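User: Just a sanity check before I run the rest of the batch. Below are the structure tokens for the first item. I only need the designed sequence back.
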């Protein structure tokens, strides 16, 4: 094969020396492509006794409610990313209080860092990725319309830590991997 036609870059899958997993490796220079989990950052944002939820305008789960959250960007701290997501999804300014939880969703290779935050103002409105943004009292939360299992977890953990000045960050509920909603329905439906 001529040099101009030969593919370059990490194209051969093999277990590199000193590793235990197959990776894509460049045969020319030895570069190893490590594929690692995606980091999601977000916040349960409160104003008095209400929490901010955003109705998704994008897939997956368009039309369902979520907390402001999304992928961490390069060169961004997790707390700054959570604040950015609140601005993007609800045009909300927030003050981060504490790291609320670290959730793992292995099926989609995600690690989620969710913060507890307070809204600087109750004025919220939908951002570019949201159809709606609103504040909900606990009894008014549309539980059956929440987008993802981790939204349920975060809201429950938020309530469990209400009034606590210090607490250890929470994790997945026992046995929960993010594959199922609390009602037993599949979490991976693309609607």
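Assistant: Here's the designed sequence for the first item:
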């Amino acid at each position: 094969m001529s040099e101009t036609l030969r593919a370059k870059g990490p194209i051969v899958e093999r277990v590199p020396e000193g590793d235990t997993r197959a990776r894509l490796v460049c045969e020319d220079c030895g570069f190893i492509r490590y594929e690692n989990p995606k980091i999601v950052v977000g916040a349960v944002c409160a104003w008095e006794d209400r929490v901010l939820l955003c109705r998704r305008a994008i897939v997956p789960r368009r039309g369902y409610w979520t907390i402001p959250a999304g992928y961490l960007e390069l060169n961004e701290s997790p707390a700054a990313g959570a604040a950015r997501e609140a601005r993007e999804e609800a045009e909300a300014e927030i003050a981060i209080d504490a790291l609320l939880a670290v959730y793992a969703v292995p099926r989609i290779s995600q690690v989620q860092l969710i913060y507890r935050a307070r809204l600087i103002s109750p004025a919220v409105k939908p951002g570019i990725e949201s159809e709606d943004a609103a504040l909900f009292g606990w009894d008014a939360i549309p539980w059956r319309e929440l987008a993802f299992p981790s939204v349920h977890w975060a809201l429950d953990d938020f309530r469990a830590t209400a009034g606590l000045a210090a607490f250890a960050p929470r994790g997945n509920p026992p046995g929960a991997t993010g594959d199922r909603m609390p009602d037993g329905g599949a979490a991976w439906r693309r609607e």
